[in-house]
Design brief:
Elements: E1 5-11, E2 25-33, H1 43-52, E3 57-60, H2 65-70, E4 77-82, H3 84-87, H4 93-109, E5 113-119, H5 137-150, E6 157-159, E7 162-163, H6 183-195, E8 200-204, H7 206-213, E9 230-232, E10 235-237, H8 240-254, E11 262-267, H9 272-276
Parallel strand pairs: 1-2, 1-11, 2-3, 3-4, 4-5, 5-6, 7-8, 8-11
Antiparallel strand pairs: 9-10
The structure holds 2-acetamido-2-deoxy-beta-D-glucopyranose (6 copies).
Amino acid sequence: MNKKISSLWISFLMSLIFLSGDIHVGAYLGINWGRTATQTFVPSMVVDLLLQNGIPELRLFQPSLNVLDAFADTNIGLAITLQENFLRNVVEQKQMDDYIHERVKVYSDKGVKFRYVYVGNEPFTKALYMKKQFNGTIRYLNMTRDALDSFNLLDIKATTPHFTDVLINVTKPSQGDFREDIKEKMLKFLDCINRTGAPFVVHIFPIYTVYRYGFDVDFAFFDNKSKFKIIDGNNTYTNLFTFIYDTLVSALAKAGYGDMEIVVGQNWLAYRWICECK
Ligand SMILES: *[C@@H]1O[C@H](CO)[C@@H](O)[C@H](O)[C@H]1NC(C)=O
Ligand SMILES: *[C@@H]1O[C@H](CO)[C@@H](O)[C@H](O)[C@H]1NC(C)=O
Ligand SMILES: *[C@@H]1O[C@H](CO)[C@@H](O)[C@H](O)[C@H]1NC(C)=O
Ligand SMILES: *[C@@H]1O[C@H](CO)[C@@H](O)[C@H](O)[C@H]1NC(C)=O
Ligand SMILES: *[C@@H]1O[C@H](CO)[C@@H](O)[C@H](O)[C@H]1NC(C)=O
Ligand SMILES: *[C@@H]1O[C@H](CO)[C@@H](O)[C@H](O)[C@H]1NC(C)=O
């Protein structure tokens, strides 16, 4: 791989065992907690699970007040998501300031350790399971940053996670680039996060990509059983995860951001049994 992965987030309830192998997690491992489920967890229980298992980071999809309360003085780093149904109604800066005050400033004062505010989620995706494109990301990102700055919350970074379909289809990672139809917006987005020291957050789903590219399915798994390889210059790829990751690195480098920090915000790890049980 060209670059070290600075962090890797997996979805809640997925086993951590799968993180051995050729992926090196540089800084930390986090968990995504979506609360749209038939069995919802009591926030304090989730905090206990995280502490017992030494998980230092959590992403929340909704910054609900009772959930935030449970994280006061836990030292667990939080990423919260500003949902599109909230953002759509934001017309002026004051609304954003009020929201950031209520959900971030107040709880930060109570000892909640916020690390990221995610402004929307995968706004440029074209994947079928998602909604139509969401406009206004750069404007809302700007407003969020300004709101955080106005409360002097300089260490909390504002960014927006992207799905890998912001990239063009490639046969080799070095061909990596952003999709033509969103390139202009992406360049503005990159300028904003680079200026404000925020990372590029990417969601990587190897199983989705392996079908889309028509690669050997084994290439999506981490167990290194795939005979399928892709050679690109001096790099040999035996796993789709590193292939996708380096494709993003190439795209960022072409846009002038080869050194930008990348956070793998979601990674739906491919379990071998998914295929064996079909
Ligand atoms: C994966 O397998 C190849 C041979 O097929 C080997 O060269 C490589 O070292 C293996 N990688 C890991 C991480 O085990
Ligand atoms: C977003 O902008 C595009 C192009 O300007 C437009 O076609 C689309 O309808 C807009 N989507 C929404 C949800 O406003
Ligand atoms: C947001 O936009 C305003 C007006 O263009 C500008 O003054 C401010 O610096 C921008 N903030 C960020 C964080 O880009
Ligand atoms: C990539 O390939 C998939 C599957 O063939 C196609 O649906 C998609 O539109 C392609 N994306 C681009 C950016 O060309
Ligand atoms: C491949 O490695 C050789 C030897 O280390 C180096 O000289 C060359 O520049 C590398 N090529 C690429 C494309 O990185
Ligand atoms: C990104 O930010 C760094 C650090 O502030 C700066 O040195 C660099 O010029 C920026 N890159 C671009 C392409 O603006």
